[in-house]
Design brief:
Layout (H helix, E strand, L loop, with lengths): L3 H12 L4 E2 L6 E2 L7 H6 L26 H5 L6 E7 L2 H12 L6 H14 L7 E4 L4 H7 L3 H13 L8 E3 L11 H8 L3 E3 L1 H4 L3 E9 L3 H12 L4 E9 L6
Parallel strand pairs: 3-8, 4-7, 7-8
Antiparallel strand pairs: 1-2, 5-6
Amino acid sequence: MTHMPGLLRSLARKTGFTAKRCPVCGVVTNESGHMCAACAEAIPFRTGGYCPSCGAMSGRADAPPSQCPECRLAPPPWDSLYFHGRYAESLRDLIISYKFNNSFGRNHLLSILACTTFQSRNARIPDIIIPVPLHTRRLLWRGFNQSLEIAKALGKELERPVLKDGLTRIRNTPPQTQFGHKERQENIKNAFATKKQCIAEQTVLLVDDVYTTGATLRECARTVKRAGALGVDVLVLARAQQEPC
């Protein structure tokens, strides 16, 4: 029986066709994108129908971005929030697999999504990039900080420094998934510290993988602002949201 990978390589040499596997579904494809067409369709970039301050989504993806009532009354402690799409289905599965199933090979695709999201939103170029940190114990358990890896890709793309220890987690809080909205805010309060001399008079881009209730990002942004940051923006891969909002 012919060995299939060898056959594919032979065909590639003869025809110029280069087979690759979609990093999401694993299907062999010769499509030019970073994933197969079906997965690209299943992980769409959100172009409209969202709040530019917090990412809250309306029922229509073709509606123009518009600030939601909550952000008009109580703006978040950052200037803008950028995200790729809804934390659901294929994008959710991709992120979870990356974080918890040792699928580190998917880092490349997620980094591409982060960079294209930043460019597509016409985002402000920051002075420095800071990933949302993990506590040392959780970092040792997982083996890597997904937010740092995404931040590294952005730093390389934007030619901006990534402050790995720009924020440090000084309390090993229980996972936020265990709590409701109000409890999450109390759980994460005063959980972070920073070095003022590294952040004062700088514009900062905070990077995380998922925005759920925003409690962690809000605490990070407040900590950075207290250190004297001139401006703070946030980039996440996915925004959790129930429709309609």
